[in-house]
C-alpha cells in the first residue's frame, strides 16, 4: 500500500489550541505557512495569523479538500452541525485528527455516517496542550484499530505520519482512547495548574525581596529545571528531592509546610475534578 504523505494541513476551528498547533508546525520547521490552512467560524478572529502567512479559508469544505491532514478543533456541541450543515466529504487518502474534548472516535464516525455514505479515512484523537506552539507539548494520541486488514495497514501508515508530525512538537505518547479524557485533564488542564504553581512561587519570591519580574523569571526557570531533571533522568521526583534536602535544612522545612497546607492534595483534586467535569461534556 502506498504511503500517503502529509503535505498540506487544515486546522478547522483554529481557536487558541488550533492556532498554537499552527505556530508549532512552523517553529518545528516541518512546514511552511503556505502549507497550513486555517478556518474558524469567525474569520475576523484569524487576523493575527496574517503576519505568519498562513492560508485563510472561510469555507470549511474548501479547506478540507485542499489538505492531507485535517485537524478538527471545533467545540463538542458543534460536531453534529459540522458534518450535517457543510456537506463535509473526506476521502480515503486524507487523515482526520480530532482535538475535541469529550468526543470519541465512535461519536465522530456516527455523525459522519449520518451525513455521508461511508468512512474510508483514518481517524485519530490527538490531545496536545498550548505549549505545542513552542514545540514543548505533552501530546497524547489514540486510534481505533480496524478489523479490515487493508484499513489496518492504512491506519498504521497514517499513525506513523501523525506521530512524526507531533513528535516534533514536543513529547508524544500513544494511549488507549479511554484514557484520552484523563490525558486532557492531566496534560491540558494540568498545564494551567503548573502555571499557577509558578505564579505562586513568584509571589513567594516577591514577598521575600525580589521584584515581581525577577521573581517570575527565577520561578519559571526553576520549574523548567525541575521538569528537565525528571525527564532526562527518568527518576521519581522524590529521588531528586532527596538530593536537595538536608537534616534540619531549609528545603525540608518548606516541603513540610507545603504538605501541611495541602499542596499535593490540591493538585490531585484539581486533576481529578477536571477529569470529572470533562466526562459531563457532550
Characterize the overall form. elongated
Gap between N and C termini: 37 Å
Q: Class by helix and strand content?
A: alpha/beta
Which H/E pattern describes the elements?
EHEEHEHEHEEHEHHHHH
Reported for the largest beta sheet, the result is:
8 strands, mixed
SS element count, helices: 10
DSSP strand tally: 8
Poorly predicted ranges (pLDDT <50, ≥5 residues)?
none
Strand content: 5-15%
Largest sheet, spatial ordering of strands: 3-2-1-4-5-6-7-8
Q: How helix-rich are the residues, as a percent range?
A: 40-55%
Mean pLDDT, to the nearest integer, reads 92
Q: What is the radius of gyration?
A: 21 Å
Structure commentary:
The chain is an alpha/beta fold and 282 residues long. 50% of the residues lie in helices and 13% in strands. It has 10 helices and 8 strands. An 8-stranded mixed beta sheet has the order 3-2-1-4-5-6-7-8. Helix 6 (180-207) crosses helix 7 and helix 6 (180-207) packs antiparallel against helix 10. The mean pLDDT is 92.
